[in-house]
Description:
The protein is an all-alpha fold.
Amino acid sequence: MKIGKKDWFFIALIVVVVGVFWAISGEVRTKKVPFDDNHRKFYEAFHRGEEKMTIDQACPACHNEQPGGIPFPRNHPVKPAEGPMRCLFCHKFKQQ
């Protein structure tokens, strides 16, 4: 079977698409959830099988803009006004 021009074009297109996805799939740059005394209960809850969205609900107790809270960095995305906090969507747990 002979490979024609259209076939080579299709193969080249697939190579380009795969190459683009490979190029943009760099290392994750968000900070991981620290494995310390403050966050240990979240690791334990996750390993017990609790869902991340349930665990996320406890994050604003410490991470907030109130006096005494741990403020977010300047370039951190803002929590949606009506939506839930989704910290663990970007911030992953460390491998233990």
